[in-house]
Amino acid sequence: MSGPRVNSFFLGNSSGVNFSIILSPIDEETGKSQLANCSGSKRAGDWNLNVTPGMNTSKVTISLTRNLQLCLPNATDCCTTPLCVVETLQVLACRDSVMLAHLLIQAEIYANSSFTGNVSENATIIPNQVFQPLGSCPCDLTAGACDVRCCCDPECTPDLKQLFNESCFTGVFGGDVNPPFDQLCSSQSMEYTPDWFPFLCVQSSLNNTPFLGYFYHGSTSTPRVPLFKIPLQTSPGKLFTGYRQGDPIMTEENEYFTIPQQSMAGQCVGNAPVAYLQNFDVKCLTNLASYKEGLPHDVRINSGAGDFIQQNVIYRTITNMGKFITESESLHTAEVLCQNVTFAEHYTFIWKDKNIEQINVTVFLGSLCDGEILTQRFTVKFLSLKSTNATELFGNPGYQVGKPVRAANMNASDTFGSLNIWQPAGRGLCTSAAYTPVLFGLDSLSGCILEVGINEDCGLLRGKVTEKLNSLIQATHIGKRDNSSYSDLNDWVEIIRLDPFNSDTNVSSGNLKGICLDIPANLNIRIIFADVGAVQGIPQQEILAVQISYSTVIWQFQCGLTCENSISFLPITASVQFIKVPAQPPIPMTRFQINYTEFDCNRNDVCWPQLLYPLTRFYTGEPYSQCLAKGLSLAFLVLLAAIMSNPWFSKIWNSSLV
Taking the C-alpha atoms of 202, 208, 214 and 216 in order, what is their torsion angle to the nearest 10 degrees? Predict the structure, then answer.
């Protein structure tokens, strides 16, 4: 063993078995350990023996009780050498002086390298990190003790270094604080070295190394803000600059205003912040045991201008429980526990510019009994202060994330249309599935299950599936903007439909029953949009095109034990994908940029356009004023050399001397 504790197991019934431990010195002449008897005890020297009995197995633990720290000056009860313990132990299991089991242990334990003594309080002088490395051995982290794998630690003795000599820390952390750099003449390698390297290399000592630039004066980092709590602005005269789209709404206690919402995994999160100008409508399942109340309705909200507004709450009682109680696990009796809980909460935020003017809340209460499943509903809707007759006049005409996508049916007298996806309920069957509108900017995937018999005709099945999918899209055009007018056709884009097959064509799989080919089970809705501007700093997003396509599958009837008079299931899905494209197409590359790639600085090591790089604004190694002064000085010297090299200058110089 090499640690202060070791475990072993005794197999069999340990009733009446006496466990003992003894120190067994090695005979120097024979090299054998002395024979042991059953007269030992559970303690021998610095060793203890502990037995944990079990049914047919007993756990035997042998532990060392002495201190394993290396001795410091004038210290006792410690290890004088790195190899602290070298002993031979024998563990015996006896019953009525008869030895049942025998275990021999050879212990070689080294002293701990961690330091537990008192550290001197003398102040350490830290050198200037710009001109001198912070330490010659950065991995030396423990004072007065050897740090494992730190071969430059002066506290590590040669015996300790042998334990980790093959796995020492490398690089700057391991003590190589002045590694040779590539520009040093002595570090020239035979590979990937240009011909002009000997003329431009640096001849310098390693003490003057560019790696010193990686050391900076330490700075105090700002503390991390706790979850769901952020500091507000505290500039004099104005505590808050207003909300922007997507900003979390704050309360008077400087915390997030939260309402239960659905996460990406589909589960409800109770403490989800409400984002400014983002509507939502969610449903959460709960029962009486897991029911939790949300934020109290007397919490005041930060309006965005620094003041706080109170919620206007109206309480109502639910009369029709069937819309909310979806399942009952047991019959109601007189002994069933019931509680008055919240069934639904509807929030309406009246806003203007970047501020919230008013908050109206309608709370529906009802009785929830033990064993019932409640479907809670939470809605948030933002209405502009300029709204009239429930028709919202947006300050931003573009789409906002979370708003329903507007649709129109231009082929009907009533041009109002819809673009929906499924919202399954109950068993997830298509016959009972409800619809929910497609929300702008939110990719989604929904589906339902269609019941199919084994004798189903493939042609009728394709038509039935296509009819179910087409029922989601009761529109021919999609609005470019959220305020698209039904009377102006230029405000709408036509839906591009890619039909999967010709319904008149009979695609057959032969005489096989229960197999149908090319079933359009997947509906793909792709919406392309772009940022076409901004209103009060909020991006104005516009839909450019909408495409609808189908993906086909091969349906095969799934049988159980028998296939007669049974029903199989066909899952059909609808996916929505929003694709953002640039508002303007990118500038195409010129023929010069395509053919002459040697002038492209992004694809070549040698970049001629950056020949005078130190004199440009892109160079940040020195202040621009110093670079400009050095450049002008260099230009003056070059001009002076050119003048002095001309013959007429020498004639003038000679004549002036005469």
Answer: -140
